[in-house]
Design brief:
By secondary structure, the protein is an alpha+beta fold. It has four helices and five strands. Strands 1, 2, 3, 4 and 5 form a five-stranded antiparallel beta sheet that branches. A hairpin with a 2-residue loop joins strand 4 and strand 5.
């Protein structure tokens, strides 16, 4: 059984949130989001007991993960990954690995 739909909308740019003094910190880091679809029955593997797994993933990959439990299509739930392009792509791959290793 496949738990993740490989189709996603790609990285969507968001307005730059950092308005600090850029000359001291270098160029701003572009942030964006990616939507992936996860089989609803597999969400527990990503979230973990009490949300511990999802918080760990957010901390390690420096992203925000938003599980849209109210957005379900054909037994798949929308999950939004928010962060830099590299961090979002790494998170997506990690989520694929989590789901695949437990099938």
């Amino acid at each position: 059984k496949q738990c993740i739909n490989a189709e996603y909308g790609g990285i969507v740019n968001e307005e730059e949130r950092d308005r600090g003094e850029r000359s001291e910190r270098g160029p701003p880091t572009e942030r964006g989001s990616m939507d992936i679809w996860v089989d609803t029955s597999c969400l527990g593997r990503i979230i973990g007991k009490g949300g511990i797994k999802i918080r760990e993933i957010e901390r390690i990959y420096k992203v925000k993960i938003d599980v849209k439990k109210d957005v379900v299509e054909e037994n798949e739930t929308k999950v939004v990954l928010i962060g830099t392009k590299d961090d979002v792509l790494a998170t997506r791959d990690h989520i694929y690995d989590i789901v695949d290793e437990e099938l």
